[in-house]
Amino acid sequence: IDGLILDVKTGSGAFMKKISDAENLANSLINTAKAFNKNVIAFITDMNQPLGNFIGNWLEVYESIKVLQGEATGDLRELSLALSGAMIYLGKKASSIEEGIEISSELIKNGQAFEKFVEIVKMQKGNVNVILHPDKYPKSKVIEKIYFKNGGFVKKIDNYTVGICALELGAGRKTKEDKIDPKAGIIFKVKIGDYVKKGDLIAELHSSSKTKVDIVKKMLYNTIILTSEKVNKQKLIKKIIYDNRN
Fold it and tell me: Is the predicted pLDDT of residue 194 greater than 70, yes or no?
């Protein structure tokens, strides 16, 4: 490894709740990398809301496939392009991160990015058919939708509790003995700053258990705070640290 791109999260769904703590962690990691003569760039990125819309093991793979196939837009694509663009720049294949992003975008557009992913799956003896036909992957036994009871602007999302909700549905472990349900999770439909009306969709809950879904419904609804005043969209990339002097 000659270079590293670090994605250091900050916000309600991250270990580092404050951006200052995220910056301290990033600088510490940069110092470690430089001690081994590695080039490194750290991104401080927002985790006050879900990245992308899909939360859960298979669901996140599904959304990643859609990004690589050029079918997904939004913050997951934005961050994927930024991180890959930075790596292309660090690998001296671009004169700037911006040029690297342009190269990454073109590789998605012409299909080479997805082809490379399929190649990697083959090398690791994975099920390529699932990657080529993700919509044929088995669905959860229980899929339920929850809707807004009121309208307004999305002011805040308790992203930590959103993660707990996904865990409760079966997407994570409470103990090491717990079994993960790869299909379980949440398709979260809103972002901070969105205007929503009563009856608009908040999320789809996926699980093998109706009991788990019923428990999570109220929990997830309470993660969102609405306001009548317009709310600015969250800035995804808070800061890029090239070295400790920035």
Answer: yes
Q: Where are the beta strands (DSSP E) in 111-216?
A: 142-147, 152-157, 185-188, 195-196, 201-207
CA angle 61, 189, 141 (to 5 degrees): 60
Q: Are 228 and 234 in contact (CB under 8 A)?
A: no
Q: What is the pLDDT of residues 42-52, one digit of tens each?
A: 999 999 999 99
- Residues 186 and 38: beta-carbon distance below 8 Å: no
CA atoms of 178 and 85, how far apart (whole Å): 38
Q: Side by side, which strands form the sheet with 39-46?
A: 3-10, 39-46, 237-241
- Distance set, CA 81 to CA 97, 113, 155, 190 (Å): 10, 11, 27, 22
**Regarding the domain delimited by 3-133+235-241, which CATH topology (the fold level of the hierarchy) does it fall under?**
Pyrimidine Nucleoside Phosphorylase; Chain A, domain 2 (3.40.1030)
